[in-house]
């Protein structure tokens, strides 16, 4: 099967490649119940040594600069309580942690979660974190530009491999909130 974006050797429905996904992502794909069928979530193999944006785009296709999104884990605090959230923004944008995220989570303070927290809490590899499969109860904040894309390239939970999914499928994730201006 050919990937709808990028220049990848092959693409396969993610349910057929569960062995390539980390356990939380594989479980989320296995139990997928959105209006978009799980077979439309595609897995593509990528070289983790070519993860730098410039090298990645040169290797896998210039169109990916405008059709990729990055997921980061944010820690928000209010009255001594900590909330972790996944934030997905276009690859060319930065998460507005001190504005949009802080306001949405009604937090006094918000910041990027430390690497060990992001990895430990998600069960995913650093550099491959994805909103698909984050822990139950987490807010999943999505930049509206990402959900509007016909196809978007996101992490797979591992540094090797990516998922290509219809943007509208992301809006159906548990805890999903679509926000204008999440990425600046």
Automatic annotation (TrEMBL):
Question: For this UniProt entry, which residues form the secretion signal?
Answer: none
List, for all copies, the residue spans of the domain called YbaK/aminoacyl-tRNA synthetase-associated. Answer: 52-172
GO MF assignments = aminoacyl-tRNA deacylase activity
**Which Pfam family, any one of them, does this sequence belong to?**
tRNA_edit
Q: Which domain of life is it from?
A: Bacteria
Q: What is this protein called?
A: YbaK/aminoacyl-tRNA synthetase-associated domain-containing protein
């Amino acid at each position: 099967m050919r990937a709808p974006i990028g220049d990848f050797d092959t693409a396969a429905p993610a349910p057929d490649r569960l062995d390539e996904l980390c356990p939380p992502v594989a479980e989320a794909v296995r139990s997928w119940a959105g209006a978009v069928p799980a077979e439309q979530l595609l897995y593509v193999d990528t070289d983790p040594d070519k993860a730098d944006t410039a090298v990645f785009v040169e290797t896998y296709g210039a169109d990916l600069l405008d059709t990729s999104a990055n997921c980061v884990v944010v820690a928000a605090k209010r009255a001594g309580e900590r909330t972790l959230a996944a934030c997905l923004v276009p690859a060319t944008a930065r998460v507005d942690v001190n504005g949009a995220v802080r306001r949405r989570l009604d937090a006094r303070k918000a910041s990027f979660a430390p690497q060990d927290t992001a990895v430990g809490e998600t069960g995913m590899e650093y550099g491959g974190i994805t909103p698909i499969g984050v822990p139950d109860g987490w807010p999943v904040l999505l930049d509206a530009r990402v959900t509007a894309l016909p196809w978007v390239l996101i992490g797979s939970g591992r540094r090797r491999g990516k998922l290509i999914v219809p943007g509208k499928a992301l809006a159906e994730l548990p805890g999903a909130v679509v926000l204008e201006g999440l990425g600046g």
